[in-house]
Design goal:
The complex is a heterodimer of chains A (139) and B (77). Chain A is α/β, with parallel strands linked by helices and 139 residues long. Chain A has one domain: Hypothetical Protein Ychn, Chain: A (3-Layer(aba) Sandwich). Chain A is built from 6 helices and 5 strands. A 5-stranded parallel sheet of chain A has the order 4-3-2-1-5. In chain A, strand 3, helix 5 and strand 4 form a beta-alpha-beta unit. In chain A, helix 1 packs parallel to helix 4. The two termini of chain A are 24 Å apart. In chain B, strands 1-2-4-3 form a 4-stranded mixed sheet, with helices on one face. Chain B contains 2 helices and 4 strands. Chain B has one domain: Translation Initiation Factor IF3 (2-Layer Sandwich), CATH 3.30.110. Chain B is α+β, with helices and mostly antiparallel strands and 77 residues long. Chain B is globular, with a radius of gyration of 11 Å. The chains are: A alpha/beta (139), B alpha+beta (77). The interface between A and B is medium-sized, with 15 and 15 residues.
Chain lengths: 139, 77
């Protein structure tokens, strides 16, 4: 597997913070940069089976502005974060991994507990090894 | 040596570059991709994409909020 590239630790599971995950992943794929996403914390819920379509929480301190943002995105016909991730995987080298610790804590230990966009369940050491030498972003 | 037309008008960032990448995957060296877009980000993004992928930005024309980006494909292996 190619090392380096863009490595994203997705911790937040809120709808507004999933947007940059989609944009950065699709952009990296556009540029031919490999992407590895490590899903952990609250983001686990967005990637569980049925999760992508049921994310509706937003960052608490911007709660009042969320409807404005979501309406603006809808008016632009901007794709959802999930569609952006699907596009990224279609055109580039993009892999999504769920955190094995959180998988155990949240009773999501089987691959079938996740949306099919998730490639595997791995430990943090595996992710760090993949990310070595590349850029790491925490969302 | 074909000219490939891509209409990405109405698509927001990063959609236009993805449309460009889809066309690039089918293109051959010597082809020119002509991309139409309305997202103003394409001006800087087309340049960044060309620098990253080793293709040549021939020019960007702007009129009435539309951008016509011309790229010479030369990095296909």
């Amino acid at each position: 597997m190619e090392k380096g590239g863009l490595n994203i630790i997705m911790f937040s599971g809120s709808a507004d913070k999933l947007i940059p995950l989609g944009v950065l992943s699709q952009t990296a794929a556009n540029l031919g940069v490999p992407v590895r996403i490590f899903v952990t914390g609250w983001a686990m819920l967005a990637f569980k089976k049925g999760g992508p379509t049921s994310v509706n929480r937003v960052t608490k301190e911007f709660e009042d502005l969320a409807p404005v943002l979501m309406k603006g995105m809808a008016e632009m016909k901007a794709p959802s974060w999930y569609d952006m991730l699907k596009t990224a995987k279609e055109i580039g080298d993009v892999k999504i991994y769920a955190c094995s610790l959180m998988a155990e804590a949240l009773k999501m230990k089987n691959k079938s507990d996740y949306d099919p966009i998730v490639d595997d369940i791995v430990g943090a050491a595996t992710f760090m090894q993949m990310a070595a030498g590349g850029q790491v972003i925490f969302i | 040596m074909a000219v490939i037309n891509v209409d990405s008008r109405g698509s927001a960032c990063p959609g236009p570059v993805t449309d460009l990448v889809r066309a690039y995957k089918k293109a051959n060296n010597g082809d020119i991709i002509e991309l139409l877009a309305t997202d103003s980000g394409i001006k800087a993004d087309a340049k960044a994409w060309c620098e990253r992928t080793g293709n040549e930005l021939l020019g960007i024309e702007e009129s009435n909020g539309e951008y016509k980006v011309r790229i010479l494909i030369k990095s296909k292996k």
